[in-house]
Design brief:
Length: about 375
Amino acid sequence: MLENQKKYQEYAVWVRRQLHMYPEIGYEIDNTVKFISGELDKLGVKYYTGIGKSSIVAILGEKTKKPTIGFRADVDALEIEEKNQIEYRSKIKGRMHACGHDVHGAILLTLIKYLVEEKVELKGQLKFIFQAAEEGPTSGGELVCQDKLMDDVDVFLAFHVDPSIAAGKIGIKFGEFNASCDDFTIKLIGKSGHAAYPHLSIDPIQMAVEVYQLIQNMKNRQLDQTQKAVISICVMEAGKAFNIIPDYAYLKGTVRTYNKEIKKKIKKQIEEIVRNVVNLHRGDYELEYRDGVIPTINTPEVCEVLKQVVVDTIGIDNYIELDTVSMGVDDFAYYVDKAKGAMMSLGVRNEEKDCIYPLHNSRFNVDEDVFIIGVEVYLKAILQYMK
């Protein structure tokens, strides 16, 4: 148990609620940065702003032969209208912390406060990253990792809240944790005309339907079924009038996988499908394929250290060794691509408190009692690495 645990738990809840009430999007997190930097100023902690455009990095300790540890908390929110009827609900219309980034920021700021106020002896250097723009479409994490401040970090650690795991439990996935995420837009170009005379037109909707079916069937017949991959087309747009065949149809979708070769194959197959369908109908096309966030691969040796820390903190019964991989995405991927590291899953589910809704849901909420567990696990990880 931490010294003065109640004090720090209450502080973590206060920070979380402050962040929750004033959610900000993408790189536009000026008020969030102002709040965090204000708390760091009170503690006398050195920090840098404007890292990777809008992120803030705080530093404690001096560089030694011990590993330099980086802690990452994303602090941006989502464009969702909150439906929770709570005293600290979002005060900004159409914006909400529906992915727990307010929790991540609160745990990290509380950890810093504990280290400073309890005068914890540090035998190495710690870097605390409050990151903007995790929630796409471009990656704030990738930009942070390009900054020279990250070049000497030996190990990166992070939490992500998980509403599928009971509050008080922590899960760790060795190896593959989150998928990569690419997106694509297909513009199918036909020739408009009257619905009564389709033979005088080139129907882009027909092309779109065929392309959709062939792409969605690709995984079953053209990809190795032992490989993890998801292809989802989520937007199909065409036409405005019931009696006019339009000039254009649009498809937009996402590709998620852990395997670079599978990713290349999918990208190639999508273009072949589109080209062949368009040629059959005498149409044309434009294809934009954007390589997005890379997969998150936890370092097994770091996971082993964290496993022992978690078991020591909350007991073996509250530790979960995750055996399923997520097709979700997190740009913590760039940190563990740059150095060793791992992301842990912090359980926040509590049916009695109505903390049952999934991430990105307008009624998402968390059991705040778990915050101090996150702080203690981070603290013990520091002590373990600095032995």
